[in-house]
Amino acid sequence: MNAYIITRDNLRTWIDALIRDYTLVAPVREEEKVSLFKPVGSFTEIDLNYTNSTISPKGWLFPQTEEMFFFFTSDNQINLEDACKPGTTILFGLRPCDVKGIIALDPVFNGTYQDCYYQMRRQNTILVCLCCTRVERHCFCNSMGGGPTNGEGADLLLTEMEDGYGIEVLTSRGEELVNKYHQLFAVDGDNRVSKTRDEMGKKLASQFSRKVDISGIKEFLDQHFELPYWNELAQRCLGCGICTFICPTCHCFDIFDQSPDGESGVRSRCWDSCMFSHFTRMAGGHNPRPTKKERIRNRFLHKLKYHRDRYNLDGCVGCGRCINKCPVNIDIRQIIADLQEVARYDQLPLS
Amino acid sequence: MTNCRSHNPLRPFPATIIKIIDETPDVKTFQMVFDDPEVMENFKQKPGQVAQISVFGVGEATISITSSPTRKGLLEFSVKKVGMLTSALHRLEPGCKVGIRGPYGNHFPYEKMKGKDLLFIGGGIGLAPLRALIDFVLAEENRKDYGNIEIIYGARSVDDLCFKYDILERWPQMPGTKVYTTIDRAEQGWEGHVGFVPAYLEEINPTPKNKYAITCGPPIMIKFVLQALEKMGFSDDQVITTLEMKMKCGIGKCGRCNIGSKYVCLDGPVFYLSQLKQLPPEF
Amino acid sequence: MKVQENLRDIARKLLVNKEATLVIGYAPGSEVSRVIPAFIRKEEEVDHLIWNPLCVNNLAKYLLDYNQEPGKVAVVVKGCDSRAIVRLIQDNQIPREKIIILGIPCPGLLDPETVASRLNPNTQILSASLNEQAFSIQTEEGIFTFSRNESLLEKCRSCEHHTPVIADFMLGEEIPPANRVDPFEKVKKLEDLPVKDRSDYWDKQFQRCLRCYACRNVCPACTCRECVFDQAEPCWIAKANNLSENTAFHLIRAFHVAGRCVDCGECDRVCPVNIPLTLLNRKILKDIKDLFNVPTPGTNLNELPPLGSFTNSDPDEFM
Ligand SMILES: Cc1cc2nc3c(=O)[nH]c(=O)nc-3n(C[C@H](O)[C@H](O)[C@H](O)COP(=O)(O)OP(=O)(O)OC[C@H]3O[C@@H](n4cnc5c(N)ncnc54)[C@H](O)[C@@H]3O)c2cc1C
Ligand code: SF4
Ligand code: SF4
Ligand code: SF4
Ligand code: SF4
Ligand code: FES
């Protein structure tokens, strides 16, 4: 598809135009160490120099709390009214791993039962990916089939260049976003953009602090459900919601009603976490995953096996967020490495 | 642009409770009809499937459809009062509005069961899903497709027996049908069998020949029933049971009801024992 | 590294002599700037135990997971963590005789982010030392120095008890408090702002709370068997994540630990979106100190929490 180049000045004009014509959601530095995707009112609010947002941008397709429908009772009739009315949104400046995270979520909300809330937002959202220019110490996207300059799944792919930004058009939806403001773009006649991106890709490939080998992990886990290793990990886990809430591919939710008067109200859903003890606790108290061990095992099997079993996609895109934020250093890269050891030696060599 | 209104699986259809039957001190059976006759017409469940029942303002719960699909024009749900939603449901009266969405899940393999004898083993509220299949095979239009029917059913006490009219009066009168009822401890006025279901099963000692055994009940009962069936020579492909996991969405999205990579809401709740043995022991 | 050797020696003795069945301490994490809580049961594993200026986790709360342990459990604590032990004993969460407290007088910790920004994540710390001005860390790749001024963890700047307030074994020499920054400096600054600004400040913070409950789960003062935030009926705060519910959560949390918060800083550390929980806790701590003239909770085993006891001298202007 086509590629264009836009100067820094024109990028500013373009983004301000997009903000005028659409809802534009982009990375914003909220606090010194907190970066979040938020709707912005002008180019100056955006921080394109971020490495990875603190919370993944999945919330723009699958909000932490989402009203599903309102209900009203009148004359002993129940009336329902849908709550979801999204306009077109541009998710601007997504990193490649977060695009991949969205691709991993798609089949969950697709299938026999179409999740119309997700689908509506997804169909009305244009993904503008921004290639990375540095690799954080927790990143391992290149081990999970992605890469810092691999924008697969996005509508447009931006690459920072010396004199501006290169823009590669990946879909017709992306093309529209360029065509509409075509006077701001110069056609990239001699493949400068893809060359720059390739070079950046090569440069960054050597910056990863750890290479993770996931080969054979799923096959090993197919055969081994019960491993003392999970006990070991669980001992220190706090059973909090950090890792699941910030993860781009976690999608568990709860459904709840709110009704001040019992006559009318709203049914909503909100993120839930398989690391919480009541997640699977049934009426009467039976809990099929009663301890932190079963819960942490479920999380990692979900990432490394179940998601593959169901959708033939990895459940982890290597964004490194959980590694960065877990208060007790439960590091999925280390888990994968440890599982390789367990598979090879039948136990961890050190213990 | 996708429209929520046309296909939103998370949005229930309004329905009305038309009749409530007190089964036991904590179980009631609710007869419900959709407010929109077209929805009623198009709701085509299979025996073993479930629905999500809403009490608006309180929430939803997964409940087996206990009426047979051969019974048109209404749906029956038998509900044990255990928590918030089920208690709210128990407080409702005929005429009250609820919501229903479904049918969800797989179903009993009634096609494969054709030409076979069927042995049902139920305990407590566990008879609810079995009842849909029992009434399905006993329905006039289907009866000829199936062999003899045996039903072993037990509860803690006479009071706790669900579907008393069915087990004590209706089913025993059906052709080719035997019903064995038991209660855990002896009680005045009860002349039937006394003892736990698994022990009663061993006493009756049914032959596995040309037969499917279908069981549902409290986990501890199921455990011993499965052992007893194995002892009697039932193969893992002849034994069918249903599983329970906590549910919210019912449609494989909310990620809560998984056992390994299977979702009970989509891939269950009906499992052959042979399938059950392939699952990680996390239920 | 003398502390580390002492620690291993004592841990080994405790396990070999079966005086303890479990030692909870620190081990190296997946990268140089991190440590992990370690649960040591075997003599052979004792050498995993480490002590260095990155040992930030408060291990006290793990004791609750081992209430049913047949033998005694030994736990490594720093000064701030030791107040949590006192807290747990006072709350009858752990019997004093079930635990062996391995106290480490802690001169202050290094900010892990600062360390991470300078060291190769895949190296190992060989030794660490500290003088008046700087930490020095030796790895396979050389010696790195970090000035105290720039790299000391924020909470350690105002540390009240470098030396644990309770211990069965003290693994190093006592460290008196020195050059302490006023712990209430930031609180006072905020107090001076107009109400509107304070309210805007907290709205902005609470708005982004994920309600992941890490702050609660890590807290040694949060020990309820069923937390109000987990109760479905009655439902104290809705699951909905919005400013109003989040604010309710934060106020309830702060008040539930009021007078019992030992100011260990763990909630603040674990928060994935950097909500300054220390500031909130210290505001309450400051008010309690002003009202009742009491030490920081957990300082003294015999001093009951001010909000959980009554004396005739308690202020009563509100009556
Ligand atoms: C496949 C299947 C079929 C079922 N069929 C029946 C039936 O025919 N009759 C009957 O009385 N009960 C049935 N149950 C159990 C019933 O779903 C629970 O008892 C009910 O959800 C409890 O809801 P509550 O709000 O009263 O309890 P609470 O403890 O207040 O539960 C809160 C919420 O958690 C979820 N939940 C809690 N326990 C369960 C559970 N055991 N299973 C699924 N979700 C749960 C529900 O979403 C519920 O609304 C079935 C469960 C499953 C999985
Ligand atoms: S792995 Fe870490 S982030 Fe996840 S629940 Fe456990 S302690 Fe929290
Ligand atoms: S599991 Fe961790 S590294 Fe993987 S996608 Fe989720 S947050 Fe990122
Ligand atoms: S740790 Fe932070 S994000 Fe999580 S609940 Fe506490 S304040 Fe909110
Ligand atoms: S509230 Fe925070 S600082 Fe206070 S004891 Fe709990 S975790 Fe420590
Ligand atoms: S109930 Fe939501 S995935 Fe099964």
TrEMBL record, chain A:
It comes from the Bacteria. Residues 226-258, 307-338 form the 4Fe-4S ferredoxin-type domain. Signal peptide: none annotated. The keyword Iron-sulfur applies. Keywords: Iron, Iron-sulfur, Metal-binding. Pfam families: Fer4_22. InterPro entries: 4Fe4S_Fe-S-bd, 4Fe4S_Fe_S_CS, Helical_ferredxn. One of its GO terms (molecular function) is iron-sulfur cluster binding. This is 4Fe-4S dicluster domain-containing protein. It comes from Desulfofundulus australicus DSM 11792.
UniProtKB/TrEMBL annotation, chain B:
This is NAD(P)H-flavin reductase. The keyword rRNA-binding does not apply. [2Fe-2S] cluster binds at C249, C254, C257, C265. Its cofactor is [2Fe-2S] cluster. It comes from Desulfofundulus australicus DSM 11792. It comes from the Bacteria. Binds 1 [2Fe-2S] cluster per subunit. GO terms for biological process: pyrimidine nucleotide biosynthetic process. Residues 10-110 form the FAD-binding FR-type domain. Keywords: 2Fe-2S, Iron, Iron-sulfur, Metal-binding. CDD domains: sulfite_reductase_like (cd06221). Coiled coil: none annotated. GO terms for molecular function: 2 iron, 2 sulfur cluster binding; flavin adenine dinucleotide binding; metal ion binding; oxidoreductase activity. It holds the Pfam family NAD_binding_1. InterPro entries: Cbr1-like_FAD-bd_dom (IPR008333), Cyt_c3_hydrogenase_gsu (IPR012165), Dihydroorotate_DH_Fe-S-bd (IPR019480), FAD-bd_FR_type (IPR017927), FNR_nucleotide-bd (IPR039261), OxRdtase_FAD/NAD-bd (IPR001433), PyrK_electron_transfer (IPR050353), Riboflavin_synthase-like_b-brl (IPR017938).
UniProtKB/TrEMBL annotation, chain C:
It holds the Pfam family FrhB_FdhB_C. GO terms for molecular function: iron-sulfur cluster binding; metal ion binding. PROSITE patterns: 4FE4S_FER_1, 4FE4S_FER_2. Residues 252-282 form the 4Fe-4S ferredoxin-type domain. InterPro entries: 4Fe4S_Fe-S-bd, 4Fe4S_Fe_S_CS, FrhB_FdhB_C, Helical_ferredxn. The keyword NAD does not apply. Keywords: Iron, Iron-sulfur, Metal-binding. SUPFAM superfamilies: alpha-helical ferredoxin. The keyword Metal-binding applies. It comes from the Bacteria. This is 4Fe-4S dicluster domain-containing protein. It comes from Desulfofundulus australicus DSM 11792.
